[in-house]
């Protein structure tokens, strides 16, 4: 739906490397917050 369209546009604009992590996050609903923190902590 809407998220897939945004994700595709962002990845295209940034010439996104598929081997990098990409996490959708909403500052309004906090959707994706746990996934974002997990990815950050994984890299530490």
UniProtKB/TrEMBL annotation:
Tell me the protein's name. Answer: YihA family ribosome biogenesis GTP-binding protein
């Amino acid at each position: 739906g809407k998220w897939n369209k945004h994700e595709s546009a962002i990845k295209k604009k940034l010439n996104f490397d598929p081997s990098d992590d990409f996490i959708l996050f909403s500052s309004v609903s906090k959707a994706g917050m746990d996934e974002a923190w997990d990815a950050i902590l994984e890299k530490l």
